[in-house]
Specification:
The complex is a heterodimer of chains A (about 300) and B (about 240). Chain A has about 300 residues and is of the alpha+beta class. Helices cover about 30% and strands about 20% of the residues of chain A. Chain A contains 8 helices and 8 strands. In chain A, the strands form 2 sheets. In chain A, strands 1, 4, 5, 6, 7 and 8 form a 6-stranded antiparallel sheet that branches. In chain A, a hairpin with a 4-residue loop joins strand 2 and strand 3. In chain A, helix 1 packs across helix 5 and helix 7 crosses helix 8. Chain B has about 240 residues and is α+β, with helices and mostly antiparallel strands. Chain B has 3 helices and 15 strands. The longest helix of chain B has 12 residues, at about 30-40. Chain B starts with a strand and ends in an 11-residue tail after the last strand. The mean pLDDT of chain B is about 85.
């Protein structure tokens, strides 16, 4: 029997934003030869985890009143303060009436079956057994076009509460970028990971959870920080792909199809006229319209 | 007969075990990594935690092989070969630093210095003892159950071609990696699983290097045994 995977082409746009920076240089992640901007896959998943919290509660009402005990790797609260592993495990134990969260976490947290366990394994780590995530971007989420970047220089725009300057290391900002992420949900891995899961044991629920989670992360559940909130959901296509299909990087494919005078895209209108037709071509070649999966409609739009 | 596959991906991270404070990728996988690729294609599930080492045992952070995979590797006496696929270019590396929390108990963030092998392409070979084992592995590699990776789960890898050839035949354009005790430049430490697992022996043997660009190019597959020894009886 043919093994199949679920592929999602997820598109969002960033307007005057800093979607993800190199922590050592504090600069946008850029392919310098082409001027394309990309994010790390972990950063993308970091965003989506916020959306999963809202989406899980809609699909399974048991999760609706447990925002602190829905995803495990929500490592910071709304004010940016870190939540330690113990804090998070205690929240799960309390919300789900567990004696100790420990190895039960993969049966309650919705991010673990999808995105796996991200910490290194420690001798003292009692949290969970090892889990490989079922979903991930197959390539760096990336703009299929050249971007304009505004240099800001290092500034003191964000003073600390004691009045002293924090010496912000902001160096540059992306003026406009239309990002594409080709995300794969491996069905065999998913079925393995969701056995006995409290959220659902039906793979279809998880397919929709991820679809809604991605949409919410870039619409109603955006991060509140100045540089993260100006990112907006644009499009989502979902389809079933055979396991022997060789996935093609959408950002590379579309960039190479652009004429030289069209490679720089500087706003949503240009994205509509220049990029959308090429994205449709990409989807056609990828077989997205042969075995499509209906996209769940968000309960509340952005 | 030999199963020859070609694989490629956007990036790979074969963490160099000799560089403790940064995640620097080697050129390509060691034999122990290829066992994992075969296991993912075959759909063997393993979720066993690395056991805590007791007195006199070797602590290991490497993942346990699923029992089914351990059995398959031993019963089929699996041998592997590897090559950089593309004689016209050398491997490229790309910096990709990330910001993360790596401590499970602490609260501080840790910036991680990473260097990835960029757009890698490889040719790998597998040899099994039985025809049945070969057929099973070929079918799995053509229709893999789980996604395969190049060393880390953020580095998805794609199998682009699977063929079966005579073991002595050369593969056009491919120069197979060899073994070296010393190497200059970017190297891949040669790691192999010690099977069956026993805590007295650890999981991996690391000895010498895989030489992806040997001085004397060879078109015939250089086979690396994937298991190296049966452990002696553990002392009490």
């Amino acid at each position: 029997m043919k093994t199949t995977n679920i592929h999602y082409l997820f598109g969002w746009e960033a307007v005057q934003a800093r979607p993800n920076c190199d922590p050592f240089t504090n600069e946008l992640r850029e392919f310098e030869e082409t001027g394309q901007i990309y994010t790390s896959e972990e950063h993308f998943k970091h965003h989506v985890r916020r959306g999963l919290v809202a989406a899980a509660g809609e699909i399974n009402p048991d999760y609706a009143d447990k925002p602190d005990a829905t995803v495990y790797f929500a490592k910071a609260d709304e004010s940016g303060s870190t939540r330690s592993a113990k804090t998070r495990q205690d929240a799960f134990a309390k919300a789900w009436s567990l004696k100790k969260a420990g190895s039960d976490l993969p049966r309650f947290a919705v991010d673990l079956p999808l995105f796996g366990f991200v910490n290194s394994v420690s001798k003292n780590d009692e949290t969970t057994d090892l889990l490989v995530g079922a979903a991930r971007p197959l390539f760096f989420p990336c703009t299929p076009h050249q971007c304009q970047i505004l240099g800001l220089g290092i500034n003191n725009a964000f003073p600390q509460s004691d009045g002293k300057s924090s010496g912000s290391s902001t160096k540059n900002i992306l003026l406009y970028g239309y990002f594409l992420a080709l995300v794969e949900l491996n069905e065999a891995q998913l079925r393995t990971n969701i056995k006995g899961h409290r959220f659902s044991e039906d793979p279809d629920d998880w397919v929709q959870l991820l679809a809604l989670g991605m949409q919410y992360a870039y619409s109603r559940c955006r991060f509140p920080s100045v540089t993260q909130r100006s990112q907006f959901f644009r499009r989502l296509n979902i389809w079933r792909a055979d396991a022997d299909t060789r996935p093609v990087n959408p950002a590379e494919k579309i960039y190479s199809a652009l004429a030289d005078d069209q490679k720089l895209v500087s706003g949503p209108d240009e994205a509509d006229t220049i990029l959308d037709p090429l994205i449709e071509d990409y989807l056609k070649e990828a077989g997205a319209f042969e075995q499509p999966i209906e996209v769940a409609e968000p309960a509340v739009t952005a | 007969m030999a199963i020859v596959i070609r694989m490629e991906g956007e990036k790979g991270l074969w963490k160099h075990t000799g560089v403790p404070f940064a995640r620097v990728s080697s050129v390509g996988p060691a034999p122990s990594h290829l066992v994992g690729i075969a296991g993912a294609a075959l759909g063997f599930v393993g979720r066993e935690r690395p056991p805590k080492a007791k007195k006199g045992e070797v602590f290991t952070r490497s993942w346990a092989l699923p029992k089914d995979l351990e059995r398959f590797v031993m019963e089929e006496d699996v041998h592997v070969g590897m090559a950089w696929n593309g004689a016209d270019r050398r491997p490229l590396f790309r910096r990709h630093n990330v910001n993360g929390w790596k401590k499970t108990t602490g609260e501080e963030r840790v910036r991680i210095d990473q260097t990835l092998v960029w757009k890698p392409a490889y040719c790998f070979a597998f040899r099994t003892k039985t025809t049945a084992g070969e057929e099973r592995l070929v079918a799995a590699l053509r229709n893999p159950s789980f996604r395969t990776f190049f060393g880390a789960s953020f580095c998805p890898a794609f199998i682009t071609d699977v063929t079966v050839i005579d073991e002595g035949a050369s593969v056009e354009g491919v120069q197979w990696a060899g073994f070296s005790e010393t190497l200059n430049g970017s190297v891949t430490p040669l790691t192999r699983h010690i099977l069956p697992f026993h805590p007295s022996h650890g999981r991996l043997e690391s000895k010498g290097f895989v030489d992806y660009f040997p001085q004397s190019p060879q078109n015939r597959i250089s086979w690396f045994k994937t298991w190296v020894s049966r452990p002696v009886q553990a002392t009490a």
